[in-house]
Design goal:
With 278 residues, the chain is of the alpha/beta class. The chain has 2 domains: 130 residues, Leucine Dehydrogenase, chain A, domain 1 (Rossmann fold, 3-Layer(aba) Sandwich), CATH 3.40.50; 140 residues, NAD(P)-binding Rossmann-like Domain (Rossmann fold), CATH 3.40.50.720. The protein has 10 helices and 12 strands. The strands form 2 sheets. A 6-stranded mixed beta sheet has the order 2-1-3-5-6-4, with helices on both faces. The longest helix is centred in the C-terminal third of the chain and has 16 residues. The chain is globular. The model has no long low-confidence stretch (mean pLDDT 97). The structure holds 2'-monophosphoadenosine-5'-diphosphate.
Length: 278
């Protein structure tokens, strides 16, 4: 019987996940279908109950439900607990288990695309929202040398500092101006904010005037594929990594949780780029 997978989010109209997963199912000859469900915030519990009632095999969870679904699941894995958000649900014989593949997907793309080891590196994170937390958790679990945070609302970095302390990894909060003046301290700079996302193409979260050539500069944004931030980094000799790898790898890792099959993430990337016209 055809298995059903889904996405719980609100809105879900622009999601690439149905395209990515349905294409992978077809290419691998798996009898399954992935559907995007637009779930209103007040109906999250009912949506999770529906996974059980309808025997939906697995789901992704996206904005704004990644935190709200957690209390209705039967089990949450350690990494998702640490992040405090779930983006993947596996229905294991009626038991719903929550995972988070965003951060790990991102770290994998950073390693693959730069072919550099980051365990000793000094990292600067811009932003302190949900995306930052997922990525920071994955970076800390992987292991990095030092991690610093800057954010428009500086107080919001406190929980990220606490997280770094749990891993005994040196960390600090820096004002944006201070970070901009000492950019040569960092080996990797990651923008987790939405600054520069379409349609605000000419906005950038940080001035890169003093960027040291060879620095890895990364943006979680994939629309546009090359943000103003990445353009500037490239001009100054930075190695750039956009958000496509994260989008694709988080999907591949979810797919693996559901099917125990590792899909070809290059195929996934190809179909996403086709869709984006890149
Ligand atoms: P997400 O889950 O995508 O991380 P979020 O939790 O709303 O979304 O966090 C968005 C991040 O982008 C925050 O760090 C936010 O800064 P604040 O904590 O000060 O709100 C940052 N951000 C969003 N718009 C911004 C802007 N115009 N300038 C600077 N930072 C911005």
């Amino acid at each position: 019987m055809e298995k059903v997978f889904g996405l719980l989010g609100h809105p879900v109209g622009h999601s690439m996940s149905p395209l990515i997963h349905n294409d992978a199912f077809a290419k691998l000859g798996i009898e399954a279908r992935y559907h995007a469900f637009d779930v209103k915030p007040e109906l999250v519990k009912e949506a999770v109950d529906a996974i059980r009632a309808l025997d939906i095999a697995g789901c992704n969870v996206t904005v704004p439900h990644k935190i709200a679904v957690m209390e209705f699941l039967d089990e949450i894995n350690d990494e998702a607990l640490q992040i405090g958000a779930v983006n993947t649900i596996v229905n294991k014989n009626g038991k719903l288990i929550g995972y988070n593949t965003d951060g790990r997907g991102y770290v994998q793309s950073l390693l693959d695309e730069t072919e550099e080891e980051i365990r000793e590196k000094s990292i600067l994170i811009i932003g302190a929202g949900g995306s930052a937390r997922g990525i920071v958790t994955a970076l800390l679990r992987y292991g990095v040398g030092r991690i610093e945070f800057t954010n428009r609302t500086i107080e919001k970095t406190a929980s990220l500092i606490k997280l770094a302390e749990e891993f005994s990894i040196p960390s600090a909060t820096v004002e944006r101006k201070v970070a901009e003046e000492s950019l040569n301290k960092y080996d990797v700079i990651i923008n987790t904010t939405s600054v520069g996302m379409s349609p605000n193409f000419n906005h950038s979260p940080l001035s890169l005037e003093l960027l040291k050539p060879g620095t890895i500069v990364s943006d979680l944004i994939y629309n546009p594929l090359e943000t103003q931030f990445l353009k500037e980094a490239k001009e100054r000799g930075g190695k750039i990594v956009n958000g496509i790898g994260m989008l694709v790898n988080q999907a591949a890792l979810s797919f693996e949780h559901w099917t125990e099959i590792t899909p070809d993430n290059k195929e996934m990337k190809k179909i996403v780029l086709q869709q984006l016209g890149g």
